[in-house]
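Narrative summary of target 7.
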Amino acid sequence: MNFLESPEERKAIVKNYYKKTETYLLNNTTDRSNIVDDFSCLIRTRSELYDAEKQACIDKFKYNFELNSALKGWGNSLKCNRCEMERFSRIFCKNCIVLMLKSKKWDSGNTYINSYIGRHQINMPFPRFVMEWIPSDQFNNLTEIGKGGFTLVFKAIWKNGRTHSYNEHDQVFTRTPPREVVIKVLNKNPCENFFKKVIII
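Modeled conformation, tokenized:
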């Protein structure tokens, strides 16, 4: 290993080995019941990686596997100890997260937006993908960067950060650190045609 490599170079190296190992396993494994252990064994053989980097890769793969199991119904279903409904992940129970989201009190001030977000949360409640109403006081350093159609475009710092994972014990999302985001501010009340153009990334 080259100790003169920069942090960014190390990140690129780790990302490359992670992606190669992940792609190999997903393309060559039909039974995913032991795929996390298989990934761990393979990544630990990578002499080019430090031990901490190997562990970071394993943790990331475990998380992504659990999230994909919940999203795609991979593997055998389990019975949730909390809500007693079917689940496919040891970390994420769709029904429990939906119930948590429904208990949250928020209001955009627009009934169509409320309905749109509510429907999306039921269909896709998992962290990284769940849609939320974010109050304006959650943004700092708002700076206009452009105009387009019937919107003004700003960049800002989102203080809470996006959802990252889910703490099942406390029934709350864990979040990323504050991050820069792009915000589109509508010049008029949104209608159904506007939401048909929304692309979930």
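The chain has two domains: 7-72, 92-196.
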